[in-house]
Amino acid sequence: MNIPILSVIVVLYNMQREAKRTLYTLSSKYQKDSNENEYEVLVVDNGSQIPIEETFVKSFGANFHLIRFKPSPSPAVSINKAVSIARGNLVMIIIDGARMLSPGILNATLQTFKAFNHPLVATVAYHLGPKRQNISITEGYNQETEDLLLEGIDWKTNGYKLFSVSVLAGSSNNGWFLPLSESSCLTINKTEYNKINGYCESFKTPGGGFVNLDFYKRACENTDNLVILLGEGTFHQFHGGVATNVPLNQHPGPVFRNEYSQIRGYSFTPPTQESILFGKLPKESIPFLNYSVERLIEFENKHKQN
Is the model's pLDDT at 32 over the cut of 90? Predict the structure, then answer.
């Protein structure tokens, strides 16, 4: 039996609509220069009210597998269990299964591990729609308008067109050249994952609260090579998420921060490690390159003033 190099772990919870697109973007039909023998996709159904069916998961490729664990409000336990049975030496974590991928992520990730010693590979996150979904939800954005938005671009043929209908997520607001607060699609060597004890199961808030930010911060602090994939990203679909799809005045951020402080004993601050940019720059992403440069200039000017 073929042993894959990379194990992709995708967590789904009540995402029947979104899973169709997310899983397609992980298939070898969509991912450029990908070989399904090099990777497996472990689809974790974390207690969906309408369970994901195995036949549905298998329809995206022979390398797709459905696994179920006892559901919990936080996905940390399920992720750690999935990593423990993953066959690849590298594990890619997609904690929110509503996030579609750009078509070069898998190949670029594998190339990164060939180029650098034990890197942590992260991607910038985007929201589908005209504004961040916490804002656009108050202006009528919903699943129906998003369906029409995606029908208007041929994203299955060219996934980079997703850049044209998206905006940067709050955690990635500074773009490519300044630190991220977290990554919605990150890859780490399995040995390094275990070395930092994986995802912290003390986080109990529905959706995990700051569990992904916590893992990303710890992983950043324990790597010499933080690599951000240039010209790639994940694109969040509207699905009624605990944090991403509520108005800003209802955002559970204070609850998340309080839980983090109780667990760690100090307030959360984003990691500050400098990163290495790796990859190609598709023309569709150039507006975000320009924006990233502007944010960097603003930061440098502010730093000089202080």
Answer: yes
